[in-house]
Design a protein that fits this description.
The chain is an alpha+beta fold. The protein has six helices and five strands. The chain is 18% helix and 12% strand. It is elongated and about 85 Å long. The chain binds iron/sulfur cluster (SF4) (2 copies).
Length: 205
Amino acid sequence: MSFDIVKGMATTLKNMGRKPTTVSFPEEERDLAPRFRGRHVLHRYDNDMERCVGCYLCAGACPADAIYIEAQENTEEKRVSPGERYAKVFDVNMLRCIFCGYCQAACPTGAITLEHEYKLASFRPEDMIYHKEQLLEAKGQSTVGSNEVWADPAPQEAAQPLPQEGRIFDGSQASAAAVGLGNYHTERHVLFTNEEQDEDRRKLE
Ligand code: SF4
Ligand code: SF4
């Protein structure tokens, strides 16, 4: 028996007693890290107004040209967002998206975040273009999404004319700095949630 075979058998024997690191998807799913970036969600304020003010900053920041927006003016009769404009059309092409999160970082109102939805499959490529109707939170169910873990809290003095429980910038008076984005230090405790499942993942120092 050559030495290579002995080595191979030793590796097999060593791993025979170990728990598998795979899970039986779809019956069983892995716990995802809070900062996992999956499908986008468009957020509302607590008063159900849409956070997106149709500024195109996310589309401009997108390196994959995956976001298509058509903005429309708010009027007194039809006010959709607190800003001058809102997004009448907001499409994200998931076939182009590389889930980098630049759109989330660029957004001055916390309107777009990447969330834990990763089951993105379709038989037809056109179904992979997600429209505003699919991305927008339902009325009465506003959240700040993963900005809870990505964004620093807005400073106390930041203008927040629309009352809400979330910590993210509200309203048209504040600046992008008030959002508290930009400090992207990595903290281990938000990257790993399940020590057992994360055992086989690359450990970050
Ligand atoms: S995650 Fe990155 S690639 Fe995807 S839409 Fe946002 S900016 Fe574009
Ligand atoms: S999601 Fe944010 S960055 Fe993109 S258009 Fe709306 S407000 Fe501007």
